[in-house]
Write a structure and sequence with these properties.
This protein is an alpha/beta fold. The chain folds into 2 domains: 211 residues, P-loop containing nucleotide triphosphate hydrolases (Rossmann fold, 3-Layer(aba) Sandwich), CATH 3.40.50.300; 152 residues, RecF/RecN/SMC, N-terminal domain (Glutathione S-transferase Yfyf (Class Pi), Chain A, domain 2, Up-down Bundle). It is built from 11 helices and 15 strands. The chain has a 6-stranded antiparallel β-sheet, sandwiched between helices. A hairpin with a 2-residue loop joins β14 and β15. α4 crosses α6, α5 runs antiparallel to α6 and α6 packs across α10. The longest helix has 35 residues. The protein is globular.
């Protein structure tokens, strides 16, 4: 199914973007000109032609708007914005598999990409990826083509949830600058799981554990270093921005490797981490998990003007802080010629009119292709002809302009 869907994609040389949008479009390094979903959630099949403008999807709750955002999120590495198991995504009463395909318009020309699982796949941990019709080695190949960042209503509690949620949010931002970051993070997690299993089974094989600990140090320090570098960039972008309707955030990382990298070369931090892991085997075995490493780091956020931890701010302030961080990241990537696709689920409903307009203005000024959902089209009126609007209902997507 995946291959057939990818082959159906046609590439049009004319995007159909209005002339007034052309100046903004020239800023983009990549955007989607076509999106096709097959047996995906509530959709038997739907095909959407896009012209590079921001995309507004409106319809009743449960109409399938977020499903389309999830489909776009799966054009990047990972399990998408819902974090769902791949077998859960297949449409009820469908063939059993699912596919998402798109045409990405890049500075080097259009590229066809597709991903999904075949019918009959059981509890699979992986999905197939095709680029221009040819099988790719894995989902990591998508990172160099499409950078995706999302905000969903579930993330409104990001500053109140576990550190793991904040790490995943930060790592998504890091991948925009370093596409290999996800591959290194996965390699670290695999070595971590294997070490934990050996310790749980009381297999204290020094050579086996030592090899895993060397892998953890190599990949873990690289993960921590990429986070430190990205956070430094974000701080600079936040400081350099003019006053906006979104509060400035003070950002910091809490983690042993991140702290060590501030004072020592990476090679020395690796060696020290290997020694600490070896020395902590008995302790970690008793705890049932590895107690030190980048898998325990945390992103710390404060509201600068109020000098208050984000977790202590109001719900509205937390959302505004989060939007401000995402926009700072988008500005940085746009300056590098690689602005991300923004997936903003129900973003406008909880912003006042002034902040909605400020958000829309920045999206358009950066030339971002943002996919935004909402139940009321009135919330997006400020965008006017600057956005493509679609009505979503019962597994069908209808253009409104």
């Amino acid at each position: 199914m995946l291959a057939r869907t990818g082959e159906k994609l046609a590439i049009s040389g004319d995007t159909g973007a209005p002339a007034s949008f052309g100046a903004k479009a020239s800023l983009r390094a990549s955007w989607l000109s076509r999106l096709v979903v097959t047996d995906f959630r509530s959709y038997a099949r739907s095909e959407i032609a896009l012209d590079g403008r921001p995309v507004v999807l409106t319809g009743e709750n449960g109409a399938g708007k977020t499903n389309l955002l999830e489909a776009v999120s799966l054009l990047s590495p990972g399990r998408g914005l819902r974090g769902a198991a791949y077998t859960e995504i297949a449409r009820d009463n469908g063939a059993g598999g699912w596919a998402v395909a798109a045409t990405v318009e890049t500075v080097d020309g259009p590229v066809r990409i597709g991903t999904g699982i075949e019918p009959g796949a059981e509890a699979t941990r992986s999905r197939a990826v095709r680029i221009d019709g040819a099988p790719a080695s894995g989902v990591g190949a998508l990172a160099a083509l499409v950078r995706v960042v999302w905000l969903t209503p579930a993330m409104d509690r990001l500053f109140l949830e576990s550190a793991g949620e904040r790490r995943r949010f930060l790592d998504r931002l890091v991948m925009g600058f370093d596409p290999a970051h996800g591959t290194r993070a996965n390699a670290y997690e695999r070595a971590l799981r294997e070490r934990n299993k050996l310790l749980a089974d009381e297999i204290m094989d020094d050579a086996w554990l030592g090899g895993l600990e060397e892998q953890m140090a190599e990949h873990g320090v690289a993960v921590a270093a990429a986070r430190v570098e990205t956070l430094a960039r974000l701080r600079g972008a936040i400081d350099a921005a003019s006053e906006t309707h979104f509060p400035r955030a003070d950002l910091a990382l809490e983690g042993t490797l991140e702290d060590a990298l501030a004072a020592k070369p990476a090679v020395d931090v690796e060696d020290e981490f290997i020694r600490r892991l070896a020395a902590s085997r008995t302790r970690d075995a008793a705890a049932g998990r590895t107690l030190e490493g980048p898998h325990r780091s945390d992103l710390l956020v404060r509201h600068r003007a109020k000098d208050r931890e984000a977790r202590l701010c109001s719900t509205g302030e937390q959302k505004a802080l989060l939007i401000g961080i995402v926009l700072a990241n988008a500005r940085l990537l746009a300056a590098r010629g690689a602005p991300p696709l923004l997936l903003l689920d129900e973003i406008a409903a909880h912003l006042d009119e002034e902040r909605r307009r400020a958000l829309f203005d920045e999206i358009v000024s950066l030339g971002l292709q943002a996919f935004m959902t909402g139940t009321d089209p009135v919330l997006f009126e400020a965008l006017g002809a600057g956005a493509q609007s679609f009505d979503v209902r019962r597994g069908a997507v209808t253009p409104l302009n």
